[in-house]
Amino acid sequence: MEVMFATRLLVIGALVGLVAGCTSSPPKNSGLREGSRAVATIVSPKDGAKDVPAGLEIQFTVQDAASTQVELKDAAGAVVAGAMGADGTAWVPAGQLKYKTGYTATVTATDDRGIDKVVTASFTTMAQPGNRVRVSSVVGDDMVVGIGMPMIIQFGRDVPDDLRATVQKRMTVKSEPAQEGSWHWFSDREAHYRPKEFWQPGTKLDMKVLTGGLPLGGGWYGRADLSVVAEIAPALQMTIDNATKQMTVTEGGTVTRTIPISLGRPGMPSSSGTMIVMERLAKTVFDTRSDPNPANRYRVDIEYAQRLTWAGEFIHAAPWSVEDQGKRNVSHGCVNMSTEDAKWLFDRTHLGDPVTIKGTERTLQYGNGWTDWSMTWEQYVAGSAIR
Predict the structure, then answer these.
(1) Preceding omega of 177 cis (within 30 degrees of 0)
(2) β-sheet bridge partners, residue 236
(3) CATH 2.40.440.10 fits 236-371, yes or no
(4) 147-158, pLDDT tens digit by residue?
């Protein structure tokens, strides 16, 4: 499990060099004091390494150190911003390094007497590779999303199992206020991040995905880093009870509307479980003329459609079934309601607002939509590449 807020990026100040010439007092570590008890080793990159990926991290080990600092400079002497990794054994640059550029890493381990052990490693990054993978986010910059919205990262190629932990360490989500959360890999190409409970309304989210130049297997590398800032909307939840054929809408914990609905008819039941709004379409067309069963073929104009599953379950206006709404299920699996109610709801919702359906003959299947909330927290955490 990860803490859902990223370690703040920091720039380590330049190390003080040894002073040549006369001084009024001996410089630190001048040889007049006993050597440092601390031991430090740069594990990767090795000194003199060439063709190093631009999406690297400085891996090191220290022993008997009271404190440790890491500094990275380019060939011109400019300090590269970065931060210690969560496990304290690596330092991660704040962004992708330049291609075909020389750098020097310095690790300073200070013992309990304030004496330093300093080790360095100089290396050169690789030329820009031709095989680069696009990494994208479903949530766009400055979007306002519902309390159930996961942060979703999609990769242009499969990420091998043995690289997922490395990739996941480069993906961080900072929430303000801070809330516990975890990543979960839904497929070889898609990873989601959600909090343990629904996001608190008004939460600010800052996601960084440092995959630029990062090896992604098979000779492929991340195309670029990714950064997204988003905000959580006021709390809105929709709960549907098949027994009563009613949707209860709560905003900020207060019931604001009860809507008569009609769910999937016998043989085509709606899914029971907690889903979230994945797509919002004021106007669209449902066309099922390719369905193998002639009885299920139709083409109809639809208003105020809100997608819940990839299989095609939506909330939408259904003026043709108003007489059935609140009484019986007649749809092909969708949540039918009047045009007036559908518009009222559509005007209030956001991507990521949760919808819970209870009491139907079918259970929501894993991965049929953004099913992050259809599993327990323990099940969700088990899908992380970092235990």
Answers:
(1) yes
(2) 251
(3) yes
(4) 999 999 999 999
